[in-house]
Amino acid sequence: MTLDGVVRRAFEEALDPRDVICDEVRCRAYECDGLTGYRVVPELVLLPRDAAQVAAAVRVCAEHAVPFVARGAGTGLSGGALPVADGVVISLARLKRVLEVDPVDRLAVVEPGVTNLEITAAAAPHGLYYAPDPSSQQVCTIGGNVAENSGGAHCLKYGFTTNHVLSCEVVLPDGSLVTLGGDSGEQAGPDLRGVFLGSEGTLGITTKITVRLLRTPESVRTLLADFPSVTAAGDVVSDVVAAGIVPAAVEMMDTLAIEAAEQAVHAGYTLGTPAALVVELDGPEAECDVQFEQVKEICERHGCTRLHIAGSAEERAAIWRGRKAAFAAVGRISPDYFVQDGVVPRTRLAEVLGRIAEMGDEAGLRVANVFHAGDGNLHPLVLYSAAAGETERAEHLSGAIAELCVELGGSLSGEHGIGTDKACSMPKMFGEEDLETMRRVRSAFDPAGICNPGKVLPTPRLCGERPGRYRPHALEEAGVIERL
Amino acid sequence: MTTPAGSAETNLPQTAPSSFDDRRPPERELLDDCVHCGFCLPTCPTYQLWGEEMDSPRGRIYLMDLAAKGEIALDGPFTEHIDQCLGCMACVTACPSGVQYDRLLESVRPQIERNVERDTGDRLFRDAIFSLFPYRRRLRAAALPGALYQRLRRIPAVAKLAAKLPGRLAAMESLLPPVAVRDAFARLPVSTPAAGPRRGAVALLSGCVQDVFFHRVNEATVRVLAAEGYDVVVPRDQQCCGALELHAGREDSALGRAKRTIARFEPLAVDAIVTNVAGCGSSMKEYGHLLADDPEWASRAEAFSARVRDVHEVLADGEPQAPRHPVPGRVAYHDACHLGHAQGVREQPRAVLRGVPGVELVDIPEAALCCGSAGIYNLLFPDAAADLGARKAENVRSVRPDVVVTANPGCLLQIGKHLGLDTVPLLHPVQLLDASIRGVPLPRT
Q1: Of the candidates A263, A336, A422, which has its C-beta nearest B7's C-beta?
Q2: What is the pTM of this model?
Q3: What is the CATH number of the domain that holds A84?
């Protein structure tokens, strides 16, 4: 089916006709998000300007059984905003007003297209900020953060998006507009806000979000410490936590990641060091003073080869710029790379890193590691050259690393989401009953199955099949199965 | 389980011949540098205005990639979205992967000019613009009040436009500020000796728009350079450097101007070729790259580009020589895109301004965002340019400056138009420095 003229006209009536993109060239700009390996050209792209238009557009989708996919800044790394063939993309890029900042109740009300960093910018004059800080915070939107329950370097201490969102106004898949959650943290009845948070766009589209703001910490201390091995750095992380210290952030980067970041931003990282930790403490001055000394002592005990303490806000910002640009910066040291996202128990960090290094050696590929060490959230980056024919080996290695995480008692995804990318791996982590329960929750919100279909949960179709134009499945080519 | 993030391999394979011709098409390697992360979106003026993927750097590179693979044609939406780019290069600053969008745009725009037929109105308007701006004599005529219609109609391209689209001609006129006849026709001295201890010799590009509409800036530049110990040479018969044409994709004509500029300046025994215009500096620094494939010109162009310096780069070198008198007040410095983003010259102008006693330097919010002038953009896309201009003016007002300074004539015109010319003095930084060195009050314009 392709959308007929009737449906298109219905969208043009729901929105301004100029805000409906229908020619294929323009639609192709929306065919993928931050994960470019998956591409599907949508039939239409809708650019509503307010919540009422979003609801009107979804009502048209419901009436005509048109699948829809919500899209923010399109920075997701799991293909969560991958369009659906014969469906529409609803872009929230134009819903970008900060509606209210309430410094007394310490909350802000924003539209979904506002970027994560813009919330902090709006709150800053009141000495407040929005705590979750994904590395892409300068561009990723709060709507996408809600969908993915995004984390960030500082969620070790402050929690994920779900800990900072009080309520969401949501357009449900039938086009009705409801509010989930409320201004106070605790609501009577089941926590539907909690269900919605992290549902990766499968339960509806949020059009207004009320977030909690925190007071900017009195004191922030950041250090950058080099270590002779990733194991030594991993041990520091464990010892810091064992000492009862809750750092605001503990990030680790290895040689390759440092090389890439340093090329991109010249932040003063040591080239060639096997591992570097960024440790940040924040809170009352006196507490920071004591704990910072403890952290320094632990670093030194584990053979720290260089300890650099950020002496100014600029130096601190430079260290973070290096860390936050690391993913994209890897493009400078390798023609191609896979971004992986997995979690292991913190105590097994050194072990998993050792295993990853061995696996990389076996495959003859380099793996750069940059990750949130404090909560065991790994982001191994498998570097390869497609031109040299390394793609398949790299893809296999990256997949094996994610499976290793599950095997070590961790998770398939820390914060990038399941999306399109890992839907097929869900059965590795969850039993059939778990998955069935998830399906039933999803059906309660979206009985027609039109809201971001094909994401998160494995669909009955052949796993390993890629959406988009028809390509024969490997088993089909081998003559094992046939398509009905 | 995982798929590659942004790489050549994941793009669909080449399915058809490239839509670009084979004269310097966008390089495959440069296209593949983009990993589609989106870090460029918040800094892109058109994405800020419209929130559409095709009007973001990432989206435009995506379309270039599709065109290079022969999947989409150059005419239609492709041309529309490349045209709508301001060429401000804020994305180059923002990109963590080091994508050279400047190089990509520079190779794609001439492709469009060569291979896409523009509709009559657009073509007439562009022809008229380029029959006017690079020519100092014609600009002088335009600078005289009300002269545009009478005197410029003698230029065939302008006459055609006036006959068919008088409205667009009027839009052009509204951006040309009235200039005193004395300034429009004034000439800079060919040679000005250094005052005090001599530090070196420089040649100044007097520019076309700059020399007619901002002659005072050129005069101030000569005085300041001389006061700081430089002999200043201003070659008499210099022409337009080709920046406006280069940034609009009129490559052949731009390269001709580049060669003439190189030929005019290269025999001069000077340490640097100096410009006080951000757009000119950025294109003259590019000559080496632009002419790299031309055996006759490659090495000459490279040597020329190596000598090009923005006036602030020269002034920030070493200690100030001439005594400065205080200029008390809040000074807001606006980074011209072609100085900050394109040349990476951000710190030097600030250092020069901080060297003036009494100056309280303030930064403008959203400093990385273009003011909407962008060469001839405000003529071609007046609505978008006006939205950006209004936004810039609001940001400028928010810091309550006593003076606003910026180093590009386009920015001065655009910000002046949206800020209201009579609110605060709007100057080039060297004008402020000149007033400080001479101990005279700041000029109003």
Answers
A1: A336
A2: 0.92
A3: 3.30.43.10
